[in-house]
Design a protein that fits this description.
CATH superfamily of the domain at 297-463: Histidine kinase-like ATPase, C-terminal domain
Largest sheet: 5 strands, antiparallel
Shape: rod-shaped
Radius of gyration: 56 Å
Distance between the termini: 130 Å
Number of helices: 14
Helix content: 40-55%
CATH class of the domain at 297-463: Alpha Beta
Order of helices and strands: HEEHHHEEHEEEHHHEHHEEHHEEHHEE
Strand content: 15-25%
CATH topology of the domain at 297-463: Heat Shock Protein 90
CATH architecture of the domain at 297-463: 2-Layer Sandwich
Amino acid sequence: MSDSDSQLKQLRSTLSKMEIALSSVEECIVWTDRQGRIKWCNAALERLFGQTRLLLLGKSLPEKLPLLLNGQVVFGYTHPVAIALETRKSGKQCYEYYKSSQYLFLEIAWSYVEIANNLTQTDDSVSSVLVLRDVTHQREAERRLQEVNEVLEQQVAQRTQELQAANAHLQLEAAQLQNLLNELHHTQAQLIQAEKMSGLGQLVAGIAHEINNPINFVYANLIYVKEYVSNLLDIVQLYQKHYPNPVLEIKKAANKIDLEFLQADFPHLVNSMEMGTERIAQIVMSLRNFSRMNEAEIKAVDIHEGIDSSLLILQHQLRATSQYSEIKVIRDYGNVPFVECYAGQLNQVFMNILANAIDAINTKRTYQEINDYPSKITIRTSVIDSQWVEVAIADNGIGIPEAIQSHIFNPFFTTKPVGKGTGMGMAISYKIITENHGGKLTCFSMPGMATEFVIQIPVQQQD
């Protein structure tokens, strides 16, 4: 019995120490019986309820501790005590508890406890232990941190939006400046090209004018020369008829100049001179048609004259040379009506396309390639739906690589060596056809074989 008393005394001492230790813990610790009545609690629970342990013992914990979960009242069977006793499982959940005109946030952990007993089951054999921790300050800190984060997010979002708007504005200004710069370059190139074409037109017109006067003089006098020569030859024939045996001196002079050949060839010589002057007159007319210096407004013209005039100016590049073979021009002209257009500008387009075709053909090709595919340019004209005129200019040159076909109408784009091209010919041609005439300019090319440019413009320009 003495040993039992000693052990009992030691056990009481240990329990007393545990009681003191648990009383100093901030978390509320409560032990209930199987009915959910408080059997023991520490000092923290006394402070929570503001009542002494003597007043709390035997009281129903669910009644003393009404809870809310996400704003909804926690009923008896959903109370942590009931969950622990019914499910016999441990768990943890954060609840709201109303105290002193404010809501506290309690983190409650529960456990099911069963004490083995060989005797009949009592209220002490099944119980639950709950640990309540006040996390109100932590939740409030989290709420404030969340509010600060939300404010920061709003400020960041607003600042980001402002920066995006400023960036978009800067990008828009940069795009406008770039477009303005491109337009300035384009306009500058157009002015240069227009000045060159104007200078060329003035030069061609001036040459045509200077040639036209003496040729008209020669051509007009050839009529009288032809008449005078015919009369003189008639007189000579009369002399030969009535004086078949001239004196020796006349006979020697006639033999020296081969009078018989002279009489037969002189009319042919005059005819050749007449044909030559007519040809020069035609060239002068073609030059004047190409220059169109006095036709700055839209006028109905024969586009075939413009094509022929362009070919005439490029005639020296079509002839065979020591480096290149002759380029044959095939004219497949249809029955095309007069077309309302800016004749000078349209002639400029013909000139640019034909010049490029000649350059493409004159690119180095083997003798076998030239023999198999003789150099040629095909020009075809036709009418589409009686409202449009189509001019197709095709060459059998080297073609255009697929990688650059989409860039050929871009300003300053050229495949020619430096100093050989400005890269504005096709860009200006595209602008003339599409903007000035409301037409279409397209390119079809098979690399290594051929290229065709198709011009389509309306027969009559809309106001």
